[in-house]
């Protein structure tokens, strides 16, 4: 598992080994993996990397701002944030059944999203993280089955009036299995830090969002033709009267 779950395309090697050598009834560990995404605010990071140039020991060096934004935020950042940075409930970008997924299925992953900001803040970017489960298939409620297994925007939303109820069921269901306890490894911002941290896609120009303001768009993760270990990222998002597109490569 690489950063953001899919980086370096390491799943392909495991899938190849599974198809060639796993006996009927054999186990895949982890058994399931889920990639999540949510908008974030991080004023401290933006101040440190960008606003610094507005006043460098009394000297206005704002002419450096375009270059500072490009060098700081062009590529995805691997860093740790906390739950306080997250602006909305997360959306599921991809749910993977490790015993059935194919190499082709992971070459391009596309997901649409629509979330509602839980507070008034500056939208500085989007965070991606994942969790994996070791054990039998997780028992889920009808609501979480729809969340995991549907690729439509309607069912990918975890930000409506019933969001708290749905996510509460999700957390409970992730702890129950059909036969025995299921172990979860999570790289979420609210969980203990891991080697994977979170992957942050910072935007060049933050926008201010109000409480309950919608943020919607799509994200596409595709294997690079230049190097199969690289990941091309295409992000589109709209909020209020702002529509932005950001493309980057995770090298």
UniProtKB/TrEMBL annotation:
Gene3D superfamilies: Hnrnp arginine n-methyltransferase1 (2.70.160.11), Vaccinia Virus protein VP39 (3.40.50.150). Residues 33-137, 179-239 form the Protein arginine N-methyltransferase domain. The keyword S-adenosyl-L-methionine applies. Pfam families: PRMT_C (PF22528). Keywords: Methyltransferase, S-adenosyl-L-methionine, Transferase. It comes from the Eukaryota. InterPro entries: Arg_MeTrfase, PRMT_dom, SAM-dependent_MTases_sf. The keyword Cytoplasm does not apply. PANTHER family: PROTEIN ARGININE N-METHYLTRANSFERASE, PROTEIN ARGININE N-METHYLTRANSFERASE 6. This is Protein arginine N-methyltransferase domain-containing protein. It comes from Sphagnum jensenii.
